[in-house]
């Protein structure tokens, strides 16, 4: 029996009873709200995204409403989600949607992929979840579930490979159920088949899982290590950006100097913020969010 037929029903049945109640999954969620959620959820857990997403949707319910603002306002209201270039990407997306697509998120996968900051996964996710398209949606959670259940590997490769894409495409059900299948596998990876501690006893496909049936062999690839943060350039950039976000106007240099003691690292981080378009230095030597 094909793997798609064996895995499909147990996973869809599990999802029907265990799916989290998330606002971007609500029946009336707009394509824009789904696009914003997908970009915010990249490398960021749901619990941190929810309050920021809610604020964004209240403030900018349409692409046009965000496009009217400066990029700096998107950065300001990004809060502490991390990887703030995503805020710039969303702002650029809003402008592109407004200018090229009449303010409506495009429905086609290729048109989505052409938007600023939208990659293969995000285009497939929005096409599936917002427009009920039939696409293989491969985020980290989906890749891990398929690696274990079908390929018998504890972890997928670091980067998505052609065999993974072919496998995911081969498992797609009919068009009516493909979007639910995509989000159901994703949810299973997020809640049960997790990276650190797979809960095989709670898994609806444990009796079909190639990795479990093989005795859960350890992954022979590079070890997964937790990211360090304290003392890094990322932390320094975050401190500096927090000062700029809290100010409504330009900030003198000494207001930035006091938040990080290591001067060479601080200057490197500040230069990086300017280079990345997350900050601007004015003629008088003060700094602000991008205007």
Automatic annotation (TrEMBL):
Presence of keyword 4Fe-4S: yes
Keywords tagged on the record: 4Fe-4S, DNA damage, DNA repair, Glycosidase, Hydrolase, Iron, Iron-sulfur, Metal-binding
InterPro entries: DNA_glycosylase, Endonuclease-III-like_CS2, Endonuclease3_FeS-loop_motif, HhH-GPD_domain, HhH_base_excis_C, HhH_motif, MIG/MutY
Enzyme class: hydrolase
Cofactor(s) essential for the protein: [4Fe-4S] cluster
Matches recorded under Gene3D superfamilies: Helix-hairpin-Helix base-excision DNA repair enzymes (C-terminal), Hypothetical protein, domain 2
Substrates-to-products reaction catalysed: Hydrolyzes free adenine bases from 7,8-dihydro-8-oxoguanine:adenine mismatched double-stranded DNA, leaving an apurinic site
Ranges for domain HhH-GPD: 40-191
Parts of the chain that traverse the membrane: none
EC code(s) of this entry: 3.2.2.31
Pfam families: HHH (PF00633), HhH-GPD (PF00730)
This protein's record includes keyword Cell inner membrane: no
Family recorded in the similarity comment: Belongs to the Nth/MutY family.
Protein name per Swiss-Prot or TrEMBL: Adenine DNA glycosylase
Naturally occurring in which organism (per UniProt): Streptosporangium oxazolinicum
């Amino acid at each position: 029996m094909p793997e798609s037929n064996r895995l499909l029903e147990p996973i869809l049945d599990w999802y029907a009873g265990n799916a989290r109640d998330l606002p971007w999954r609500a029946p009336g969620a707009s394509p824009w709200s789904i696009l914003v959620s997908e970009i915010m959820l990249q490398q960021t857990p749901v619990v941190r995204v929810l309050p920021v997403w809610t604020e964004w949707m209240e403030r900018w319910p349409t692409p046009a409403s965000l496009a009217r603002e400066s990029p700096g306002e998107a950065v300001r209201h990004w809060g502490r989600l991390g990887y703030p270039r995503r805020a710039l990407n969303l702002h650029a997306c809003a402008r592109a949607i407004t200018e090229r697509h009449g303010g409506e998120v495009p429905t086609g996968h290729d048109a989505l992929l052409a938007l600023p900051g939208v990659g293969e996964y995000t285009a497939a996710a929005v096409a599936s979840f917002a427009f009920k398209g039939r696409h293989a949606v491969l985020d980290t959670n989906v890749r891990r579930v398929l690696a274990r259940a079908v390929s018998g590997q504890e972890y997928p490769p670091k980067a998505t490979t052609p065999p993974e894409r072919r496998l995911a495409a081969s498992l797609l059900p009919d068009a009516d159920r493909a979007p639910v299948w995509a989000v159901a596998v994703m949810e299973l990876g997020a809640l049960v088949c997790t990276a650190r501690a797979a809960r095989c006893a709670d898994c609806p496909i444990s009796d079909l899982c190639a990795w479990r049936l093989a005795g859960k062999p350890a992954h022979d690839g590079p070890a997964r290590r937790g990211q360090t943060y304290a003392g890094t350039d990322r932390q320094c950039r975050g401190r500096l950006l927090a000062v700029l976000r809290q100010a409504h106007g330009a900030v003198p240099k000494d207001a930035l100097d006091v938040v990080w003691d290591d001067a060479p690292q601080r200057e490197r981080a500040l230069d990086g913020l300017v280079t990345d378009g997350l900050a601007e230095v004015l003629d008088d030597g003060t700094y602000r969010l991008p205007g």
